[in-house]
Amino acid sequence: MTANETVDVLIIGAGLSGIGAAYHLQDLCPNKTFTILEGREDIGGTWDLFRYPGIRSDSDMHTLGFEFKPWTNAKSIADAPSIMEYLRETVEEFDIGRHIRFQHLATEAAWSTTDQAWTVTATNGANNETVTVKANFLYMCSGYYSYKGGYTPEFPGADKFQGQVVHPQKWPEDMDYTDKNVVVIGSGATAVTLVPAMAKDTASITMLQRSPTYMVSRPGRDAVANKLRKVLPEKLAYKVTRFKNVQMGQFFYNKTRTNPEETKEKLLGALRKELGEDYDIDTHFTPTYNPWDQRLCLVPNSDFFEAVKSGDATVVTDHIESFTETGIQLTSGQHLDADIIVTATGLQLVTVGDMDFFVDGNQVDFSKSWTYKGIAYSDVPNMASVFGYINASWTLRADLISKWVCRLLNHMTEAGVTQATPRLRASDQSMPERPWIDDFPAGYMQRSMAMMPRQGDREPWVNTQSFSADKELIGKAPIDDGVMQFTKAPVSLGAAAN
Fold this sequence. Notes:
This protein has helices spanning 16-28, 46-49, 61-64, 80-93, 189-199, 223-231, 234-258, 260-275, 281-284, 303-310, 394-415, 443-446, 467-473, 493-497, and strands spanning 4-12, 34-37, 100-101, 104-112, 117-124, 129-140, 164-166, 181-185, 204-209, 215-218, 297-300, 314-317, 320-324, 327-330, 335-337, 340-343, 356-359, 362-363, 371-372, 376-377, 383-385, 419-422, 484-487. It contains 14 helices and 23 strands. It folds into 2 domains: 4-147 and 348-493, FAD/NAD(P)-binding domain; 158-223 and 275-343, 3-Layer(bba) Sandwich (FAD/NAD(P)-binding domain), CATH 3.50.50.60. The strands form 6 sheets. Strands 1, 2, 3, 4, 5, 6, 17, 18 and 21 form a 9-stranded mixed beta sheet that branches. The protein has a 5-stranded parallel beta sheet with strand order 7-16-8-9-12, covered by helices on one side. It has a 3-stranded antiparallel beta sheet with strand order 13-14-15, with no helix packed on it. The protein is an alpha/beta fold. The protein is 29% helix and 21% strand.
C-alpha cells in the first residue's frame, strides 16, 4: 500500500462486520472504491483471535451468518474453524481479499473539513512503517473490545500462585492441561465453553463463580434447517430458517421482559431436568437477576451439564479471598487446588476501536457525544460504526448498518454533497440522557459505560437494541431526516475570487 492511498470508503477491520461491509459496498455502491485495514495477519477478528479449547458461537449461524451468504453446515452452533471456513469462502466468492491490507493497525483518524476527508494513520506490522490512507467516509468494523488483552480483576495474592494463570484471550499455543488441576474463574459463555472442552483431559476442572448465570441447552444442529435444505433451494431454505430463528429469539426475549418470573421458572425447570432434582440448582444455577438482564449462556447438546453430571467437572459458587501458592482460598474456608487458573473474567470494551479521533484538530470525546441510531455520533462527519446486539446475533445489526451506510453514500452522490454530519436539533438540546446500552447491567458493559456515547429519549438519538425496531429506524427511515446535515466541500478563497 502506498503511503498516500486515497479511497472513497475506508473500512477498519476484516472480521464478520468488515467482510459484510465489503460485500454490501460492492453490491450497492459498485462505483465506490474502498480498502480494508486489518491489524492482524488474517481475517476473522474474534474467530481468529481466540484459540481456547472448544471456542464456538453462542448464537445460531443462521442468524450470525450473513444474510447474503447461506450457512450450509449441518451444525448451527458452530466451532471457530467452521466459522473461519465460512468467512474464507465469503471472501473468495465475492473477491474481497484484494481489498484487505493485513498487518495494518490503524491508530489515529483525523477529519478535515477543508479536505472533506479522513486521514487514517496505521502501522504496517511487516516493516513497522507508518502509512496513511485518505477516505471521504470512514466505516469502523473493529468490534467493541480491545484486542490488546482481556479483563482480569486484581486478585489478592496473585503473585503467590506457583502455577500458570491464563486469560482465554491470550491462550498459549503450547498450553498443556493434561492431568492438571484446573480452576476456571467465571460463569459466562467462555467458561461454559472451556469446561466441557477440557474436562476429559484434566485431573480435575472447577468452574468458580461468584454468582450463577442463566443457562439454556439447545441442539447443536437445527433439524428444521437441515430438513428445509433437502426440499428447498439453498437460499430460500436459509431465508426461512433465518426468519424462524429471528422470530423465536425475539419472542423469547420479549417474554423475559413482559413475564420474567414465568420465563425464570421455565429455565430453572429445564435445568432440573438436565441435572436432576438432587442437584443444588438454587445455589449454583439460580441468578439473582431476571433472565436477559445479562446475556444467557447457550449450552449446545447439553455438553456442560453432561460434564457436571458425570463428575468430570465441578461448579463452586463462592468468593475469592486470595490466591495461594497452590490454588485459591475461598471466603467459605474451602481451598481449590490448582495447577492452572483460567481467568474467564471478560473483555475490555472500547468505544470505537483502540484509536484516537480528531475533527478539525479537536480530539473527539465520544462520552460527550450522542449516538445517532447506534451507528454514528453527533458532530462527527462521515463516519459509521458497527455495534451489534446484546440480545441477538451480531450480524443481524451489522447487515442492517452496512445497507444503511450504502444508502447514505448513494444519497450523498445523488445530492452532490460530500459531508454528512448528525447534529442535534434545537428541540434535542435539553433531552434527558440515557446510557448507551439501557437495561443491561452486565459487569463488562457497566465497567465501560461511562466512556460510551449517550442515548436520548427520542429518535434518531437512540440505540434500540431491537432488531424489529431497527428494521424501521435503520432499514427504512429516510436518510435525509432533518438531523443528518448534508454539506458540500467548502469553496476555497482562490476559487471564490475567480
